[in-house]
Amino acid sequence: MRKVVDCRDFPSESGCTLTISGEEEEVVRAATEHAVSVHQHADSLDLRQQIRSSLKDEVPEHA
Question: One matching Pfam family, short form (predicted)?
């Protein structure tokens, strides 16, 4: 099942609204890169675990 992570679930000063969806490992990798490059987080195992724990199942639009 595809997974999704949404920056709106983590309020920030920037008001980021990015949503990333795909296979779990793709989403964790892309969300980590985004968190580091846009939100200045350090790439760490803890960050990746936090992202992984916040993933939700993607709900098909035509369901």
Answer: DUF1059
Distances (CA, A) of 61 to 5, 37, 43: 16, 30, 32
Residue 3 β-bridge partners: 22, 57
Listed by start position, the domains of the chain span 3-57
Helices 45-54 and 24-37: crossing angle in degrees, nearest 10, is 120
Length of the chain: 63
Q: Name the amino acid, one letter, at 59.
A: V
**What pTM does this model have?**
0.88
Q: Are the C-beta atoms of 44 and 19 separated by less than 8 Å?
A: no
